[in-house]
Amino acid sequence: MIYSEEINNQLNTIIEKNIAAVKGYRETAENTNNTTFKNMFLEQASKRETFVSELQAEVTKYGGSPKRDTDFTSDLHRTWIDVKQFFSSNNEEALFEEIIRGEENAVKEYEEVLRETQLTDTSERMLRNQLAFIKSSVSKMRSLETQVA
Predict the structure, then answer these.
(1) What is the sign of the dihedral through the CA atoms of 32, 33, 37 and 39?
(2) Which H/E stretch holds residue 122?
(3) Measuring CA to CA, which residue among 71, 78, 77, 83 is closest to residue 27?
C-alpha cells in the first residue's frame, strides 16, 4: 500500500477531531466541580493527546504535514458546550449529552475513514485501536449520564 494524499487528508481530519476532543475534555474538566468527573475528563484528554501524537507521527513518517490545530466546526461545538453548560439547570447531564454527541461523531468519522479509505496497515491498525477506545468511552459516558440524570 502506497501512502497517498487521500490518506494524508483523512488522517489530518482525524487529527483535527482529536485535537478538538482534547480541548473539549480539558475545558469540561475545568468547568465541573465533581472531582471524579474532572479526573475522568483529564484522563480522556490525555488519551486523545496520545492519539494526536500517534497520528501526527504517522503522517510525518510518510512525508505528510500533520495538522496542529482544529477547524471552525470543532471550535463551534466546544462553544456550544460552553453555552449549554452556562444556561443548563443540570450542567452535568447537559455536559454528558454533548460529550456523547461529540464522541459519537468521532466514531462516525473513524468508521467512515476506515470504510472509504485504503489505508496502510499501520494506519488502519492505529485507527481501529483508537476507535475501540472511543467506543468504550461512549459506553462509559452513557453509563455516567444515567447517574447524573
Answers:
(1) positive
(2) helix 121-148
(3) 78
Three-class HEC string of 42-110: HHHHHHHHHHHHHHHHHHHHCCCCCCCCCCHHHHHHHHHHHHHHHHCCCHHHHHHHHHHHHHHHHHHHH
| Region 5-148: CATH code | 1.20.1260.10
Place of cell 466546544: 78
Residue 4: DSSP 8-state: -
* pTM of the shown model: 0.85
pLDDT tens digits along 72-94 = 555 555 555 554 554 454 567 77
Coil, strand or helix: which one is 133? helix
Domain ranges of the chain: 5-148
